[in-house]
Amino acid sequence: xxxxxxxxxxxxxxxxxxxxxxxxxxxxxxxxxxxxxxxxxxxxxxxxxxxxxxxxxxxxxxxxxxxxxxxxxxxxxxxxxxxxx
Length: 85
Hints:
The chain is mostly helical. Helix content is 51%, strand content 9%. The chain has one helix and two strands, in the order E-E-H. Strands 1-2 form a two-stranded antiparallel ribbon. The protein starts with 5 loop residues before the first strand and ends in a 22-residue tail after the last helix.
């Protein structure tokens, strides 16, 4: 990851070219963490959108009139053969 030309810490701008190796490493660590936070925020937005969709579907299912369950169909029997006398 390349460093920005300047960074701002507590309201003060610093030129990254003049930072020590330790400071460079810390800036890179911050960039990695910022990227991970952005990724997690995106995942959270996806999960919240899915939850809202599931919630809306549940509301629709609860408000929809219940489908009537059809009466069980009786099995049709073949007529019995008359008894031979």
